[in-house]
Design a protein that fits this description.
Length: about 300
Amino acid sequence: MDNDQRLLRKLEQEMGPAILDALADPACIEILLNPDGRLWVERFGEPMQVAGSMTGVNALAMMGTIADALGTVINRNTPILEGELPGTGSRFEGLMPPVVAGPTFTIRKKASRVFTLADYVRQGVMTERQQGVLEQAITDRSNMLVVGGTGSGKTTLTNAVIAGIVGRYPDDRLVIIEDTAEIQCAADNAVLLRASLDVSMQQLLKATMRLRPDRILVGEVRGGEALALLKAWNTGHPGGVATLHANDARAGLVRLEQLVSEAGVVQGVPALIGAAVNLVVVIARTPGGRKITELLAVHGYVDGRYVVNSVE
């Protein structure tokens, strides 16, 4: 048994049955440990539920093993651990005292199953009317901005939209850019690009233009790459999807303006956004679980304001 296998075996023992069961559950989206030692699990279409507990000692041992596998450390001087959970590809974020009262972590699972738009309707996350709007946007090759807060389910919804694209246009060549491997794509003709500390998403977007994409999809827009994305969407590559952190549709458009300004461009930005973005989809966490709360069609930017209308 090599060192990687030993680390994985050790990690499985430290995680325990509650976490291992949640990781194996296709419906599970996130696994969270709070400082009080309670483990919470969220499943698709359901509110969070307590799934067990974990001692602080065990949680620290688990995070130490993950840090070892990632080639880094977590201790009182470096109390934050970020990276992929070994063996799963899930996103891991861990913290330890003194920045929290007790060991805390979140595991955002890499999807083992792609939920369809029809699944969202069955689970009550969206209405049939909203499903129809999204399917029409796919058919019309509209550029979609998927907006929501942290953990709202933007990537899972994007996976469902991509599944709709593949079903409707199976011959389209998709180029997908992200910094963490979360997007799931079943297209036969797809290229997945991954940003790193050495290669930015902005650099990848520029390279994308030479890869002959039919559609360009970005896992999460965070900085100046927003300008390159909008230019790509505006120059013969319609039908793309990107995600963005914001609380509502209009805030998403304003946030996009701010990100474009990081590339050093200020003049004409709203007009560029108004021409490139066709539909803003907002997903949010509610007491009853995730919901599509807003669908906003964008028709341009005229006389100092976005021309929009709700299409729910």
